[in-house]
Amino acid sequence: MAAAVGGILATVAKQAAHRDAELDELPLLDRLERRYSIPRWWAGRWVRTLSPDRAIARAQAIARPPPVEVCVAPHADLETIATTLAERRTHARVVRIEGVPRGLALSAAGDVFYAPEATAGDLWVQSGPSQRVGHVLDPQPGESVLDLCAGRGTKTQQIAALLGGRGRIVAADVDPRRLDDLRDRLAAGRIRRPDGGLEVIVHDATEPVPEPWREAFDAVLVDAPCTGLGEAARHPEVRYRRRFEDLAACQARQRSILTEAAATVRPGGRLVYAVCSTEAEEGPDVLAAFIRDRGDFEVTHTETLQPEDGWSAGFFVARLERRIDAA
Is 298 in a helix, a strand, or coil? Predict the structure, then answer.
């Protein structure tokens, strides 16, 4: 059996270049679908909105396995951590992530999640685009911060590090099992708890927020549930599980969450909305609908991170500020 499989693979390898050349001659839509395994409904959107070169560059970027990316805590020396990780394995490659001040991208560096530096809280696994979201939020020491869709708490950990031990964090999510991971890392001392506390709460972000949360936070992060299409490189299966109809369903939930989150922002405070998707329905369209309904908020920053531009995932991020006279 092994010999037969080996023979088949050898034949495929010999024919690969010729087959690739054949597929490259197809119309763009067929090429995206057949050579790069982009579902036809999704590929069609690229054909309508991107140049051919941009569409192929995105498909090629998604086809490449992304590196493991980590965030180095502010109290740890970035260069020392990078050198240590690089020296631990012979073939390891460690590079800085452009646009992320404390981010490192690792290749062939072994198990990082349980590395001594991770156990000590000096670093944690977090993608570069995810780290960008934390920097757009820009939590300041002494502030009160709400992470409304905290999940496993990766961004919560980054927020805690940026607060530098001063401030307060509330981390909420609808899934108690995901929050258990955050609690475990807190108990193990892997997350720096601020002096005002780090409260972990089960809460459905589509429901009205608890009364004590209303206008109680300086900074609020909504990393909203989405199609996850921006993570297609790290999670290839997402492209096959999602359908066009999912965009509308996700948008409805995202709009509901953003509306509820707005009630927690104090006048003069800020609200960051992010999704690991670059589809217009989940990013700019949600933002535009919110602004139409809420004249007390203004958009101060947006950015779209794309795999073809060197990011390991596609993200949309927007920062809004609530007017000081909104009370």
Answer: strand
Predicted confidence (pLDDT) per residue in 1-49, tens digit: 767 666 666 666 666 666 777 777 789 999 999 999 999 999 999 999 9
Which of the 8 DSSP states describes residue 325?
A: T
pLDDT at 109 exceeding the cut of 70: yes
CATH superfamily of 68-125: Sun protein; domain 3 (3.30.70.1170)
Closest CA to 270 of 222, 315, 327: 222
List the catalytic residue out of 71, 149, 250, 276: 276
State how far the Cα of 199 lies from the Cα of 106, in Å rounded to an integer: 32
Whether 276 is a known active-site residue: answer yes
Predicted TM-score of the model (pTM): 0.93
Q: In this structure, what token pair is assigned to residue 111?
A: 């198990």
The one-letter code for the residue type at 129 is P
The alpha carbon dihedral of 204, 127, 236, 280 has a sign of: positive
**What does the pLDDT read at residue 15?**
67
DSSP letter string over 207-219?
SPPPGGGTT-EEE
Other Cβ atoms closer than 10 A to 22: 12
- What CATH number does the domain located at 128-322 have? 3.40.50.150
Cβ atoms of residues 304 and 316 within 8 Å: yes
What are the domain boundaries of the chain?
27-59, 68-125, 128-322
